[in-house]
Structure formats: C-alpha cells, structure tokens
Amino acid sequence: MTPQGIKDILQQGEGIEVEFKESLFELNKSTFESICAFLNRKGGYLLLGVANDGSGRRGAGRESANADRCHC
To answer: Which pLDDT value is given to residue 57?
Structure first.
C-alpha cells in the first residue's frame, strides 16, 4: 500500500470494504467483527489509528495510518 493509496482510502471514507478503528494497541470486539465481515465478503481495508471521520488518533496521522487488505 502506497501513502497515496492510504490517502485515497481516507478521503473515500468508510463503506462496505473500508473500516476505520481508533485503537492502535488494543483491538475491541467490533474490530474482530469487521475482520469477520471482510472475510465473509471479498475483503476490505482496515485502517487502525483512524477515527470514523478519517482523522488520525493517538499519534497516527493521515500519512502514517496502518492499512492492510484481507484476502480470503
């Protein structure tokens, strides 16, 4: 994932294949539910350290947000 790809996802916002989670270190139940939902569909992007409005939280700014693609 390139920095520009992450920026594009942040601008797109949350949707069926994109989920933002504020937590960086402790993953709550809703994070695992999102992962399961991605696995039951065609995958998606889970960005940690990002609030629902796309802003960075707890030291994770827009350029440093972590993104990973779930592959089923």
So the answer is: 56
